[in-house]
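May I ask you for just one protein sequence along with its backbone structure tokens in two labelled lines?

_____
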Amino acid sequence: MTMTDLTLPITGMTCGGCVRSVTAVLQALPGVDSVSVTLTPGQAQVRYDEAQVLPAQLAAVVEDAGFEVVV
């Protein structure tokens, strides 16, 4: 199992509730090992198994939760 670290820049988070929401949707994905979300700067540090989940899937769940991933 190869773990990969990724930083997702995220806009639209305004409070601790937003941070908790983003953390929860990312942690729910299979293959995600750890998640650390910060409000300032708005980003998510994700460690995941690239055999189980793709960066595009990580970004998609964040966007589905109502936030924007800056590419």
About this structure: Helices lie at 16-27, 55-64.
